From TrEMBL:
<keyword id="KW-0249">Electron transport</keyword>
<keyword id="KW-0830">Ubiquinone</keyword>
<keyword id="KW-0496">Mitochondrion</keyword>
<comment type="similarity">
    <text>Belongs to the complex I subunit 3 family.</text>
</comment>
<comment type="function">
    <text>Core subunit of the mitochondrial membrane respiratory chain NADH dehydrogenase (Complex I) which catalyzes electron transfer from NADH through the respiratory chain, using ubiquinone as an electron acceptor. Essential for the catalytic activity of complex I.</text>
</comment>
<keyword id="KW-1133">Transmembrane helix</keyword>
<keyword id="KW-1278">Translocase</keyword>
<keyword id="KW-0813">Transport</keyword>
<dbReference type="GO" id="GO:0008137">
    <property type="term" value="F:NADH dehydrogenase (ubiquinone) activity"/>
</dbReference>
<keyword id="KW-0812">Transmembrane</keyword>
<keyword id="KW-0472">Membrane</keyword>
<dbReference type="InterPro" id="IPR000440">
    <property type="entry name" value="NADH_UbQ/plastoQ_OxRdtase_su3"/>
</dbReference>
<feature type="transmembrane region" description="Helical">
    <location>
        <begin position="56"/>
        <end position="78"/>
    </location>
</feature>
<dbReference type="InterPro" id="IPR038430">
    <property type="entry name" value="NDAH_ubi_oxred_su3_sf"/>
</dbReference>
<dbReference type="Pfam" id="PF00507">
    <property type="entry name" value="Oxidored_q4"/>
</dbReference>
<keyword id="KW-0679">Respiratory chain</keyword>
<feature type="transmembrane region" description="Helical">
    <location>
        <begin position="6"/>
        <end position="25"/>
    </location>
</feature>
Length: 111
């Protein structure tokens, strides 16, 4: 039991020592480029909160959802014939979601 406590104590001391050494030796450059927000390689104009369009986020979210549905399609395609009903149900939900996105105008690629 004493050996376990000594190993744990040694590990914590070593961890703390490495953390302090890393903090002391690190470069602390507080220039304008270092503390500014990263905006995909272009210089932001105006407030940072207003320079990102929510439309890009919505398109990314739709891509992730449809990408996951494609992965689910692959799982259904390699299964047996009894999963045909679940395949049709998934197609129904995907087409329903696609119709809803089209109906609300989220598929129009205009900034």
């Amino acid at each position: 039991m004493l050996v376990l406590i000594m190993v744990l104590l040694f590990t914590l001391v070593l961890l703390l020592a490495f953390y302090v050494i890393n903090f002391v030796l690190s470069i602390k450059d507080m220039g304008k480029n270092k503390i500014s927000a990263f905006e995909c390689g272009f210089a932001s104009v105006g407030k940072i909160q207003n320079s990102f369009s929510i439309h890009f986020f919505i398109m990314m979210l739709m891509f992730v959802i449809f990408d996951l549905e494609i992965v689910m399609f692959l799982g259904i395609l390699v299964s047996d014939l009894s999963s045909y009903v679940s395949f049709l149900l998934m197609i129904f939900f995907i087409l329903g979601g696609f119709y809803m996105e089209w109906w609300y105008g989220k598929l129009v690629w205009v900034i």
